[in-house]
Every structure is written in C-alpha cells, then in structure tokens.
Amino acid sequence: MRRRYGSALLLVLVGAAILRISAFSELYLRYVQAGLRPYLVVSGAALVLLGVAMAVVRRTEHADKGAHGHAHHGPRTAWLLALPALALLFFPPPALGSYSAEREAAQRAAQGVGTFPALPAGDPVELTVGEFSSRAIYDSGRSLKGRTVKLTGFVTHGDDGTWYVTRLLVSCCAADASAGKVEIRGADALPADTWVTVTGTWHPKGGLGTDAAWPPVLDATTVTRVKEPADPYEKR
C-alpha cells in the first residue's frame, strides 16, 4: 500500500506544504515577495490535485491487474523528499536574520551620488533602512539634515560593541537577500534579532559616496520593541 501510493502521497505533501504557507497564512513572505503568492497557490493546488489523480489511477490499475499484477515502484530514497515537505508543513523555517545580515557587511543601499526627492513634511518621517542609507550616503542635497526619522528593523551587533538596525533587501526571494544596516548611537543595544523601531536624527560621517560614510549613523532618541512584521524584507 505504502509503495503503491508513495509518489501520490509525496505530491500531496509537497502541495499541502506550499498551500499551508501561501493560501492559509502569510508565511510565504519569509521566502518570496508578495507578488508571487498567486503562483504558489496555483502550484500547491496543482500538486495536490495531481497527487489525488495519481492515487486514483494507481487504485484502478491495481484493481485491473488483480492480486497477480506487478507494479513498478521508484527507489525508496524518494521518500527522503517527504522530509522537507513535512518540515515546511509543520515547522516552517524563520525569515533570515542577523547571521545572514552579518555576511553582507559591505552592501550598499544605492549607487551613485546625486539629488533625491524632498522628504514628506512633518517629523518623524518614516523611512526604510534602504531609503535612509541611500540618502545618508549618496544625497548631495543632504535631505536628512535637521529631520527626525523613524526606522524599523532587527538588531545586529558589531565586533566593537556597536549595534545596528538591519533589514534584508530582496529582489525576488530570500535566496537573493542582501543586508542594509544603520548604526545606532545613544541607546543601549538589545539582543540580536530583536525587532525595534528607532526614532532619531541623522549623524553625518565620512565623505559623500565614500566607504567612510557606510554604514550610516542615527543618533537615537527612542528605541521601541516591536513585533516582527508579516513581510520582514524590504524591496530593492
């Protein structure tokens, strides 16, 4: 029985795992961008339906052949494919965190010095880590000067006691993620991977567009713990 329906069961397991993270939750945002959700739902449903159809076909073939029929079965090692499917179904891995960010210490949030559009009126102005970094390092108009900004991200630590608000930036999915981070001064560090919202003012350093300007610095006035957002990544 197990060998007869093994392939069908594997297809159903994989499809159910995909549906579990995409159709019935927002866990898929840990791995891919929001725009890919419909494709995941369709793929998961197709795999489940294909698995059910295969099981029906196998049952019919077995009934036709009777007890003396000999079915061809795949290698038993194929059952190893069930392990990642079961893990995704019951224990979805978390989003990338501080370990991945620390591997991207030399990433830049943008390329090229130039002027940026004016920031919205009113303080604090909420920016992504990537937006703040771009303006701090490359904006010849110094649009951050005199403004209070609000950044949200997770905590990472430096080797010299410094700490950062960090976000991972993706183009398509978690596999292409790179890190953007902002050094925080004037506030005690929290444990790594703690999600926080930091309000403060830009602290200029280094020459415009130079390595010395990275990572940018924020002088903190408040640091508040927050819940990890459903979509933990910023879009490039």
**Total beta strand runs:** 7
The overall average pLDDT, rounded, is 80
Assign the structural class, choosing from mainly alpha, mainly beta, alpha/beta, alpha+beta, or little secondary structure: alpha/beta
User: What is the CATH architecture term of the largest domain?
Assistant: Beta Barrel
Q: List low-pLDDT spans.
A: 101-110
Question: Regarding CATH, which class of the largest domain?
Answer: Mainly Beta
Structural shape: elongated
The radius of gyration over CA amounts to 25 Å
Distance between the termini: 49 Å
> How many domains would you count in the coordinates?
2
Under CATH, the topology of the largest domain can be stated as: OB fold (Dihydrolipoamide Acetyltransferase, E2P)
CATH homology group of the largest domain = Nucleic acid-binding proteins
The number of helices is 5
Run of helices and strands: HHHHEHEEEEEE
Largest sheet: 5 strands, mixed, barrel
Q: Which percent band covers the strand fraction?
A: 15-25%
Q: Roughly how much helix do the residues carry, as a percent range?
A: 25-40%
Q: How would you write the strand order of the largest sheet?
A: 2-3-4-6-5
Report on the architecture of this protein.
This protein has helices at residues 6-22, 37-65, 82-90, 98-102, 129-138; strands at residues 125-126, 148-157, 163-170, 178-185, 195-203, 217-225, 233-235. It folds into two domains: 6-93, no CATH class; 99-235, Nucleic acid-binding proteins (OB fold (Dihydrolipoamide Acetyltransferase, E2P)). Helix 1 packs antiparallel against helix 2 and helix 1 packs parallel to helix 3. The protein is α/β, with parallel strands linked by helices and 236 residues long. It is built from five helices and seven strands. This is TIGR03943 family protein. Keywords: Membrane, Transmembrane, Transmembrane helix.
